[in-house]
Design brief:
The structure is a single chain. By secondary structure, this protein is α+β, with helices and mostly antiparallel strands. It is 34% helix and 33% strand. Strands 1, 2, 3, 4, 5, 6 and 7 form a seven-stranded mixed beta sheet that branches. α3 packs antiparallel against α4. The longest helix has 29 residues. Its cofactor is Mg(2+).
Length: 182
Amino acid sequence: MTLFARLASDVQLMFRRPPRQQYGALCYRVKKKSGEVEVLLMTSRDTGRWVIPKGWPMTRKCAHEVAMQEAFEEAGVRGVVEPETLGAYTYPKVLRDGVQVVCKVQVYALEVTNMVKNFKEKGERRIEWVSFDEAAGRVREPELRHLFLAFKKKMTDRLSANAATQISTDNEIPAAKQIPAE
């Protein structure tokens, strides 16, 4: 490495800032008939890449509440958000003034229960419901891709456990019809 390249690298390290914090929602729904899980992807307003709803911290709102608010403003979805984070990913963002910063997005699962027709950013983005694998293939950030696949496993396990519980309760004899032991 040349002396100039080394000095340039040292200067970059001196001015490197910690990542800017954002909060995002991995929005999902379970189809009633098939039991399949779909996740929401949308395009970013500036580059058109596939992303999840996310935004900056908000005064007097917890991180998961910010994620829920951003999902409503950016995609018009409402639902139940889990207060525990699924994980995080980073991505480079170019600010309005042209400065590029690294953003770290804490992601929260949001089970969508309702979609509204009119919302703040309607018409500014394309919104699609896709499979986990399709979502993982569309997003550019490797860490976000990993979050989709890890959440797919979590949901598969959760739905399998729910199905097993349902089968076992379906096979139980109702209390009123149980035969007393002799």
